[in-house]
Design a protein that fits this description.
five-stranded antiparallel sheet; 568 residues; alpha+beta; 3 domains; Immunoglobulin-like; PIG-T; 26 strands; eleven-stranded mixed sheet
């Protein structure tokens, strides 16, 4: 039952045998989509050969000091955090290089030396909340789970004790400039040079989908794995809509996407490259690139062999006579079909009323003749009380019995439900998982300021070793692009992928909050009128005013005053 992810996460090697103590690489992958939209994926990787457990590190060169202190202070083994706005539409855009659910996702592996994992987890979320200027302080025991089979370590070592793993999501977290600015400050060159100058907030957030993430893990420093290095990988994934950002035209450029052009690589980077996916147009039949490049590269990513045009920013010839690179991508024709993803999923809530409901999770296997297992993780808040005896799994109209089930029931106001299942998906099938639930009635102080908007339920997580179309590259000692080396492969016939469903928006029984408001207003009005009138009567002082003299008398007094005679 643990083989599913274990095959993908053993002994991660760094791409080069002769890796220095410090190293920084940056990449941008641009994938034109068949809909006319465009997908851009930034990858920034910082390597540092050090040991936070044995050595007290005080000098930082490329690795950010704030994250280094977090690793040392809280004995972090691995840390993965993502901030996402929008939902990745797998059937329209294909598989992403870095999957992430809507909102915020955080999962951490602690060292086995940590005695109080829950206490350390709470302190760590508060510190990360300050570093990334996010609402991670709202992560507590009510939205934290401890998976038993999902989220294996991505770094060195595969011996796992899930007592040291914590996973939490905030599906309602909004991503904005406040999160992007501290994220860019973690880069060695910041946003002043290299590919990071393209990360302009007003363009990134004016897109259909954008996600930024930070991944920290230990990896092997050489092919023999005699020494380890800490890898910090920062990623940004964004999808621009051609109707919003390109005025409906099937033509893109760096300036149209980011309102910036490139003038130089990051001086601290050992490698700085731009990859443009031209797999569907290897001879330029459908896509036209300007300026053209003679550098071509092939890489196996997401189970398929892709062809890329490469622009090396470390070469001055890339920028031409203008000393500026504004890459232009133009469609010549609309022909061609996108390769359907072999695995995708969706989820929705069924039922009526505010008492009972039912969660439906659909998993699609589009492979024509091969079945494969998937590991499904469901984390449901405590106020949706699952009836686990109503759990059903069906494929092609027949019951599909999971080979592994782990269920941890919730406790009111203490912890959520946790459900993990290992399910075999038949070829060309739709597997449906359903479970009924009952809505709980919250205390009036537990409702959000906008209770009628509803309550969010985090995305389901589906992990799987999907059959590959081509033989996957298992040689981890040779240099590979960053976008194809995040999930290492131990088998040539499969590749690891993770799919997230949509978050759910569920309405709960909500009291009439306008009634207390009306009572408060009426009571305040009565008190103000009644008490105010009584207070005025008790504190006001009365004085007798003499009637004012007539006009003739006032004129006579003026004349008498001018003559020096006393007034009448």
């Amino acid at each position: 039952m643990f083989r599913l992810e274990a095959l993908s996460h053993e002994n991660v090697f760094s791409p080069s045998v002769s890796e220095p103590k410090h190293d920084f690489r940056e990449e941008l992958v641009i994938r034109p989509l068949h809909s006319g939209d465009i997908y851009a994926s930034f990858q920034f990787r910082t390597l540092w050969k050090t040991n936070f457990r044995e050595n007290k590190v005080s000098h930082y060169r490329l690795f950010p000091k704030s994250l280094g202190q977090v690793i040392s202070k809280f004995s972090v083994r691995e840390l993965h955090i993502s901030f996402t706005q929008g939902y990745w539409r797998t059937m329209q855009w294909g598989q992403p290089y870095q999957p992430a659910p809507p909102g915020t996702e955080l999962w951490v592996w602690f060292q086995d030396s940590v005695t109080d994992v829950d206490g350390t987890w709470k302190k760590l979320t508060n510190v990360l909340s300050g570093i990334f200027c996010a609402s991670l302080n709202f992560i507590d025991s009510t939205n934290t789970v401890q998976p038993s089979a999902s989220f294996k370590p991505l770094g060195v070592g595969n011996a796992t004790d899930h007592r040291f793993l914590r996973y939490a999501t905030l599906p309602r977290e909004i991503v904005c400039t406040e999160n992007l600015t501290p994220w860019k400050k973690l880069l060695p060159c910041g946003s002043t040079a290299g590919l990071a100058v393209l990360l302009k907030s007003e363009k990134l957030f004016h897109s259909s989908f954008h996600s930024q993430a930070v991944h920290i893990r230990p990896i092997c420093h050489d092919w023999e794995c005699k020494a380890t290095s800490w890898e910090l990988r920062q990623t940004v994934n964004v999808v621009f809509d051609r109707h919003i950002s390109a005025q409906g035209k099937r033509e893109w450029s760096l300036f149209k996407m980011f309102s910036r052009t490139l003038t130089e690589a990051c001086p601290l980077a050992s490698s700085s490259k731009i990859y443009v996916d031209i797999t569907d147009s290897p001879q330029g039949e459908q896509l036209e690139l300007s300026p053209p490049t003679s550098l071509l590269s092939q890489a196996v990513a997401l189970g398929d062999r892709r062809t890329f045009s490469v622009y090396d920013l470390k070469q001055q010839s890339t920028f031409g006579m203008t000393h500026s690179l504004n890459l232009l991508i133009r469609w010549k024709s609309n022909e061609g079909d996108m390769l359907r993803p072999l695995l995708h999923a969706e989820r929705y809530v069924a039922g009526y009323g505010l008492h009972m409901g039912e969660i439906h999770t659909l998993m699609y296997n589009n492979h024509p003749y091969r079945s494969f297992p998937v590991l499904l993780l469901e984390s449901v808040p405590w106020y949706l009380r699952l009836y686990i005896h109503t759990l059903t799994v069906t494929s092609k109209g027949k019951d599909n019995k999971p080979s592994y089930i782990h269920y941890q029931p919730s406790k009111d106001r203490v912890r959520p439900h946790l459900l993990e299942m290992l399910i075999q998906l038949p070829p060309i099938s739709v597997t449906e998982v359903t479970v009924q639930f009952e809505r709980a009635l919250l205390k009036w102080t537990e409702y959000t300021p906008d209770p009628n908007h509803g309550f969010y339920v985090g995305s389901s997580v589906i992990s799987s070793l999907v059959p590959s179309i081509v033989a996957m590259d298992t040689n981890m000692t040779q240099e590979r692009p960053l976008f194809s080396s995040f999930f290492p492969n131990k088998e040539e016939s499969t590749y690891f992928t993770r799919v997230y469903t949509e978050p759910l928006l569920v309405n709960l029984p909500t009291p009439d909050f306008s009634m207390p408001y009306n009572v408060i207003c009426l009571t305040c009005t009565v008190v103000a009128v009644g008490y105010g009138s009584l207070y005025n009567l008790l504190t006001r002082s009365f004085q007798v005013e003499e009637p004012s003299p007539g006009l003739a008398k006032r004129i006579a007094n003026v004349i008498r005053k001018m003559r020096g005679v006393p007034p009448l």
